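Hey, resending since the last one bounced:
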Amino acid sequence: MDIDRVKLIDFGNTNAKIYHEKKITTMKVDEFDFSQKDFYYINVNQSIKHRLKGINLENKFSINSNYKGLGIDRKVLCYYISDGVIVDAGSAITVDVMHRSLHKGGFIYPGINSLYKAFEDISPILKIKKENQNKSFCLPKSTVNAVEFGIFYPIINTIKEVSKDYKIYFCGGDGKELSNYFENAIFYEDLIFKAMKKIIKENLC
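The structure tokens again:
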């Protein structure tokens, strides 16, 4: 099997990310052609699970974890990283700690966009543009910086607290941006697909 020619799909609640021949594309889930059969996938979208005709990777592997309710997307990433902290910064931000192939635990934050929206919902005065970030984390002296501080400071510092000497692996839409706050970090746009390819090689080939 030429693993790079296999079609891999990560179905989310809104979008489907597709990896094929070393290229990643994104489409709305409701625009996907459900008659397709020749693909491997993971899926968190319960409304489409009975319509998918490809090969589901969910039960093709396992990880050492006592975490209850670990989502398939997080589980796949933990299978790929045996030592390190994994941060998937999408519509939600998930953080998982792996040590010698043991999943030590993890936590979830709302995504960056959701946090900006939450401030906007509180008051129109708190609506700010995402690109104006208080990257220095000095005590804020403006409402703009106060909102940015409230969004980024808790996330960054909690990740730093749990990562300590671990390498941090970032992925997801806001992953590259968040990785810039850490010296021991690396961003992979295709991390979920690297993990899916590992599962296929080790369990299905």
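The two ends are 7 Å apart (CA to CA).

Sorry for the duplicate.
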